[in-house]
What we know:
The chain is an alpha/beta fold. Helix content is 64%, strand content 8%.
Amino acid sequence: MNDLTPLRPALEAALGVLPTLEPLVHGDDAEVARRVQERLRRDLLPRLGGGDTPLLLVAIAGPNNVGKSTLFNTLVGATLSPARPEGGLTKQCLAAAHPETWAGSLREVLTRRYDIVLVAPGDSAPVDQAGPAGRLYLVLAEAVPRGLVVMDTPDFDSVYRDNRERAEALLVTVDVLVFVVSRQTYQNAALVDFLRKAVGHGHPYLLVYNEASREETARGHLEKLAQDVGHPPLARYLAPHQPEVEAGEKPLATHPLDEGPPLSSLLGDPVHTRALQARALQASLRDARAELEQLTRATLALTQEPERLRGRLRHELHAAGRAAALRAIPADVMVEAFRDELDARSTFHRYVRLPFRGLATALTFVSRQVHRAFTGPEPTVPPVEQSTEATLRDGVRRLVEGLAPEVATWTGDAPTREVLREVLGPATLERLEEPLGFETLQAQAGDREALYQFCRELVGTELTGGPREELLQSLATLVYSVPAGAAAVVTVVTGGLGQDAVIWAGTLLSTPLLERFVDLLGADVRERVINRWADSHGATLARALESRFFTPLLTRLDAQVEQGERTSRILAETTSRIAS
């Protein structure tokens, strides 16, 4: 893929979510997050829409005190970078280019990739002082071939971590890497790992073996290094040991080991620029794809802990709500649904039962009024509601005690750990002593209506017509007519003092219907209705508990899972777009 323009939205979306991910990952994943951000920001996105640019970006890299700055000074034809035996002097990136590069259209190419600080003629760049990654001190030198930018990078194996990060941030942006090694460093494990990360997906690179005493030894060492990296360099060069170079009296001389062109000719010849840029682009895309795949896996792993914890918490809340709902099963809903479905299926029986149903309602009202006159007002909180709230409190108490160890085992961010400590601690247990304020939930109008509709559908499904249904219609009519009439007579004869008979009549109205419902429609009908109520009303109570006690914690966990899923989806989509 040479035209990256269609990739721009996907790459920009990935770059937009990576800063939120970087603080959450650790170790190698954190390094990959930093590196891919630099790759997208300073390499791939700047190429979009820019067309072919005749500018070759070359970086010189290597371990400490191996001669990078000396080679840089040789290629640019001037002593611009400090090169002394103690090594480790280069802490920021220094670059050199022909003056026409900065004066022409190529200037924009550089400013899109780097934070350029132009070094005035005669001044020295303060590369021995620390600075931010992405900053590039640029020296304009006539000796540098047109269309070439040569960079000197900090030591990748420096004891200073910032030096390593600056070097890595720069290397993801260049077209060609010139890697300098010596007989003391070529098989260093850190060196091999660094080089493999930098060029392992086919990025163009050159090897320079400095301070070589024997050519055959240098060849063997470079072959071993290329094998460890995974693919061969474009060319290999030998720099014999030269005391005059070490003393600063002569420039570093390099010789091709494979009958190729001299190093300065290979890098300075515009003929090679386009091919090297194309190889670098494809390698950078492969690198980005591998890095985004790794971060996608890391993001999904990050969501596992909050997703598990919120799932466990909501499961325990639902269990507490379900247990409380079972304390107040509205059996009258099932009877009402059964009665209404019978009425809907038989016009005759509906009209026969209608006056007796009105009489039963009136008698029930009278019974309640008389009962209240003798016993006083009903308790403010009915016993069923008291039992329900007690069950809810017990459930929350068990939940807090059971989830308390999650505070110590939490491996995510520190702010969430503090919320865990607050919510799953004594503060919540103290709040349980306060009134829950769930009286309106006990009215359960919505849940009752849902249960009623469920029962209506259940009864309608089980009633299949025929003699059995007709018998059931007749029995229901008798259940309404006979007890209601008897209760009315008792009430009139006793002058309104027959409330016990009225209560007896009301009980007689409902109990046989419920029993007949269960008997005729199957042994599991009652269980299905109870489970439906426990699930629906239990969920209502669980949401109320969540809102009262656990909103701060679950809001954070939901946000973390949502953000993780969104980030992983964007990274995966970007990876797929790159692959296609």
